[in-house]
Amino acid sequence: MEIVLKTSTIDATYRVSSHQLCSGSPVFRAMLGPQSSFSEADILRRQQASNALEPNSSLFQIIAQEEHDPTALTTVLYVLHGRSTHIPESISFENLLEIAIICDYYDCAATMRPWSEIWMKPLRTLSSKSGYEDWLFISWVFRDQDIFGQMTQRFSRNAVMVDGEFGVIVDGEVEKLDYHLPQGIIDAMANKRAEIEQKIIQACRDVLTKYDDDSTIQCSYSQKECDYIAFAGLRRGFRSKNL
Fold this sequence. Notes:
By secondary structure, the chain is mainly alpha-helical.
């Protein structure tokens, strides 16, 4: 049966097939499927029964949607309905992010293939550039292991934790990522970052210990005074960082 998806604040209405939505999205299946106990499914079943008695009936189920980006939502719905002639072959990084948000919300990322791979291919080089940290979320949604691995390593080294969430430094300011990854992934990156920090601290302490050893001289010119200066500088630096 055809239904209407309508947003509450954005003037956008989508006429879609409940069958196609349920086939491509477990979330829609849970909401509208024949075994669903949701009120939307109950109303849909009653309308289907009414239309069976009145074949020319124009009744449609109206479901209020989250305020997703309308262009991105249109693209996702075209893919779910197999309308390939209406699906763009290339999109912007911003649009890819909005599509990833929708796919995460409706759990339909798998249905987006191969389109998601086509869209990501020309944008992959952006994953190593500053300002494109949302590739972490995109690669997680679309299960791109290569980029996800690169991004998690990058975040483990360079990101900062703000109120239990990962943030990135952009133009000297810390900005939180707007999207929530599974806690297990966040914990793994946080643990890896802590491990890296401890290795760096231990390496610095090992150097300090070498300069603190009067039985050997670290200076390549065998000048003990150089060791004293280096030792004092290291101690001062450690103290300033509360290490």
